[in-house]
Amino acid sequence: MSYSNQKSRPIFGVGLSWFVMATLGVGITLSAQAQLNLESFWIRAMPPGQPMTAGYGKIINSGDGPTTILGASVTFADKVEFHETVTVDDAVRMQPMASLILEAGETLTLTPGGAHLMIMGITTMPSEGVNVALCVQTSAEEVCTKAPVVRQAPAAMDMHHHHAH
Questions:
Q1: Is 13 within 8 Å of 29 (Cβ atoms)?
Q2: Is 62 in contact with 36 (CB distance < 8 Å)?
Q3: What's the pTM value of the predicted model, to 2 decimals?
Q4: pLDDT value of residue 164
Q5: 136 with 72: CB under 8 angstroms?
Q6: 3-state SS string for the chain
Q7: What are phi and psi of 47, to 5 degrees?
Q8: How far is the CA of 131 from the CAs of 8, 60, 90, 93, 161, in angstroms?
Q9: Is the separation of the CB atoms in 45 and 56 below 8 Å?
Q10: What parts of the chain have a pLDDT lower than 50?
Q11: Centroid of chain to Cα 113
């Protein structure tokens, strides 16, 4: 074997090693993407003709890294926004949440009187007792669940806070 071949082999080996590590790194990054779980979701039943209602439940990031929630949707309304309850000048009001980034292991709990889904532009309010599809979108995935339409918070989610929009 000549000197030049000996020299080029380690370079090729190092190059191949970097290629393999870079490829594995991409695989690790992809597998580390956040995975959302939706738990205990429910939609507040409203009388017919109401243009909006609210949704509640838990969004859990069970992945290995942070995820940014881009939005949510339901089949019976035009728009869903994440809202929070704030006090401004001694007045309590709801406003859209600025940014929703869930770190690995973090849970966003949506409750009456706190952060919640504001469901607007309702075409037809589903009847009480019906389960509706509710989806949450991130840059990596869309996760959907079935949420019952009920008038009162299920016992597991009732935090003794009640509000109306």
A1: no
A2: yes
A3: 0.72
A4: 40
A5: yes
A6: CCHHHHHHHHHHHHHHHHHHHHHHHHHHHHHCCCCEEEEEEEEECCCCCCCEEEEEEEEEECCCCCEEEEEEEECCEEEEEEEEEEEECCEEEEEECCCCEECCCCEEEECCCCCEEEEEEECCCCCCCCEEEEEEEECCCEEEEEEEEECCCCCCCCCCCCCCC
A7: -60, 155
A8: 65, 21, 37, 29, 23
A9: no
A10: 1-32, 158-165
A11: 19
Task: Give residue 44's Cα distance to chain centre.
Answer: 19
What is the amino acid identity at position 80?
V
Tell the residue number behind the tokens 């009388």, with chain if given: 47
Read off the pLDDT of residues 84-100 as tens digits, 9 standing for 90 and up.
988 889 998 888 987 79
What's the CA angle centered on 136, arms 140 and 98, to 5 degrees? 90
> Please, which contacts does 58-61 make with residues 24 or more away whose CB atoms are closer than 8 Å?
58/107, 58/108, 58/109, 58/110, 59/102, 59/107, 59/108, 59/110, 59/136, 60/36, 60/102, 60/106, 60/107, 61/34, 61/35, 61/36, 61/102, 61/103, 61/104, 61/105, 61/106, 61/107
CB 46 within 8 A of CB 53: yes
* pLDDT for 30: 38
Contact between 141 and 113 under an 8 Å Cβ cutoff? The reply is: no
Largest Cα–Cα distance of the chain, in whole Å? 87
Phi, psi of 135 (to 5 degrees): -125, 145
